[in-house]
Amino acid sequence: MKAFLNLIRWQNLLIVILTMVLMRYAVLGAVISKIGVILIKSTGEEIPMVLQFPWYDFLLLVAATVFITAGGYVINDYFDIKADLINKGKVIVGTKIPRRQAMMWHNIFNIAGVSAGFYISWKAGYIYLGVLFLIVSGLLYFYSVSYKRQFLIGNIIVAILTAMVPLLVVFYEWPALYKYYTINAISLPKINFVFYWVGGFALFAFLTTLTHEIIKDTEDFEGDVAYGKNTVAVVFGVFSAKVVSVSLIIITVALLYLIWYFFINDTITLIYLSAAIVLPLLYVIYKVVISRERKQLHSASSIMKIVMLTGILYSVVVKVILTWNLF
Questions:
Q1: Please, what is the Cα angle at 158 between 70 and 144, to 5 degrees?
Q2: Angle between helix 279-290 and 194-219 (nearest 10)
Q3: Segment holding 48, helix H or strand E
Q4: Beta bridge partners of 97
Q5: What does each of the 327 residues of the chain score in pLDDT, given as a tens digit?
Q6: SS3 (DSSP) at 25
Q7: CA 228, 229, 230 angle in degrees (round to 5)?
Q8: Burial code of 142-177, b = ≥16 C-beta within 10 A, e = fewer?
Q9: What does the alpha-carbon distance between residue 255 and residue 286 come to, in Å, rounded to a whole number?
Q10: CA gap 309, 276 in Å, rounded
């Protein structure tokens, strides 16, 4: 059981679940609660908007995302045995879990994820959205087979797919809100701005994931060279990969403060961003710059994961700020 849980990266799957739950209840729920509407069959009193995508369909959406993500981790380990032996000195597929069994789990996870994706898309009235789950499933397969060996393509694909996790929540919630309040409210307020809120988290996820992937590739330089992967570190050298990583972090920090200044501009957010996100990112820069061995790069990579988590947890700060009117 432990080998199976490690194979599907259970910690990462928990973060996927946490991200989607927080996007729905801490961000979307809190943001739309600040919008007042008058329902047609009401007494004329303005009431706050509430989430309309059914919670049980939301659970299926989360399950579909988790299944396809787990399938991606399995197939990645399936095709990455040689490189992992060099970089990590151990593998799961082929030792603790037979290759045939790993492929079986990959197929089960993908069939379950795509099926659930098409079902909830049909329930939402947009069955074509189910194609998205099929495309992601295919991308993860071809990422493991080919894309991860190509210069930057694999890194960008992983970053895009990570950014899609929070966006999926709003993709399914927005149509439900639009349908319900178009029919039941006297007038429908503009709710397109919910995409900007979630889009900010998605952009952060994209940049930090891309940075993490490049740092990790730099850490795995030896195995990638032996296995023929054309990562940034392999193509341009370790120093150039470090420059790219540091540049991405600087861009991320700059964007965080620009978004805060122009769109949010509250003290609580400033303190949280500086203490929980920016300071750790600056420490990552320090670790990357001084690194001379894999251990230091691995430390930087681990801190990037923590930063990605604190970025997600900012949604709790959003919930607190909006609920208690602290802005």
A1: 65
A2: 20
A3: strand 47-48
A4: 93
A5: 888 999 999 999 999 999 999 999 999 999 999 999 999 887 778 899 999 999 999 999 999 999 999 999 999 888 877 666 666 667 888 788 988 999 999 999 999 999 999 999 999 888 999 999 999 999 999 998 888 888 889 999 999 999 999 999 999 999 999 999 999 998 878 888 889 999 999 999 999 999 999 999 999 887 778 777 888 999 999 999 999 999 999 999 999 999 999 999 999 999 999 999 999 999 999 999 999 888 889 999 999 999 999 999 999 999 999 999 877
A6: helix
A7: 115
A8: ebbeebbbeebebbebbbbbbbbbbbbbbbbbbbbb
A9: 20
A10: 10
CB 250 within 8 A of CB 292: no
178: CB partners within 8 A, 6+ apart: 188, 191
- The per-residue b/e assignment along 259-295, b for 16 or more CB within 10 angstroms, e otherwise, is bbeeeeeeeebbebbeebbbeebeebbebbeebeeee
Residues in the chain: 327
Residue 88 near residue 97, CB atoms below 8 Å:
no
Nearest to 178 by CA among 164, 167, 191, 168: 191
Q: Where are the alpha helices (DSSP H) in the chain?
A: 2-7, 10-22, 29-32, 55-79, 81-87, 99-124, 130-145, 153-184, 194-219, 221-227, 232-236, 238-259, 267-272, 279-290, 294-323
Instruction: Give every CB contact of residue 50 below 8 A, 6+ residues apart in sequence.
Output: 29, 32, 33
